[in-house]
Task: structure prediction
Amino acid sequence: MSIYKSFTIIFLSLIITSCGSSSSQKKNDFAIKTNALKGNLSISDTLNLTIINKKSYTIDSVSYTLNGEKIEKNHILINHKLGKHEIEATIYLKDETQKAKTSVTILNNEAPKIYTFNIINEYPHDITSYTQGLEFYEDFIYESTGQYKESKLRKIVYKTGEVLKNINLSDEYFGEGLTILNGKLYQLTWQENTGFVYDLERLERLSTFKYGASKEGWGLCNDGETIFKSDGTEKIWTLNPETLEEQDYIQVFTNKGKIGRINELEWIDGYIYANIYGKNGVAIINPVNGAVVGVVDFSPLRKKVTQHPKLDVLNGLAFNTKTETLFVTGKLWDKLFEVEIIK
Result:
């Protein structure tokens, strides 16, 4: 009897497993065809969608979504964010429903404009500072620097380079970007999934916060209401200034493709200015859709600082709203440049 029961249990188990396996298989009798050339469309284009009906089924209706939002089969892209987006079609048949997915990359419809600059002033900068974040606030420069066991936060008299206050981060933290908003200073760390919040007046740490899907901390800026955060990819995240939770993101793209390794950020006259890690240029980004509308080539500045074996790339942007001038430096540079941008 026990042998019979054992065989019965094994038999039933095989039936259940078999049925479960069969029901979990999703049919894929349809595919989505778009008018995207090599998967790319311009933001000024219209996205056209059709269904490839592999087995000539009778279709009752089809509905489409772009990133989860319902769209028509002929969809104008002009108000969309740039970057890679997912398209899903739901195909309704007489007795069942099937889904199909594809993706499309939305590019800008114009090439970035090229900007130049004039140097207004040169100031001393600590040549040992591996600059990650820079902020101009009430006639002082606030700087966050990187490297393990060397990271720090400083308040500096920018004209002389005098350090008024210095806070060393614990050895396990690699300092990154910073921004100032509503009497608080926010500082990122690189791969430690931790950000710090300080009281600006005393530069005393109030709290910490964790990252979400952004994984790493690179740069910060704000528009007076929202905080923007880069993570070393093409994405720039928007953070709730109260909870510091990630709410959304833009993807940084030109008319040709994405711009990755977005680093230090600065908010200037409605746009995000961003260092590109490893490059001596700055991208000017539309914060609504991620389009690179301009590029500033700062490569001549590197030749104007003391040359040494550890000299690294341009990094550090701070805007003085009173003079409308930009302060620029680099990693292990001995100069801070005050410049004006020329269209």
About this structure: The domain at 22-107 is CATH 2.60.40.10 (Immunoglobulin-like).
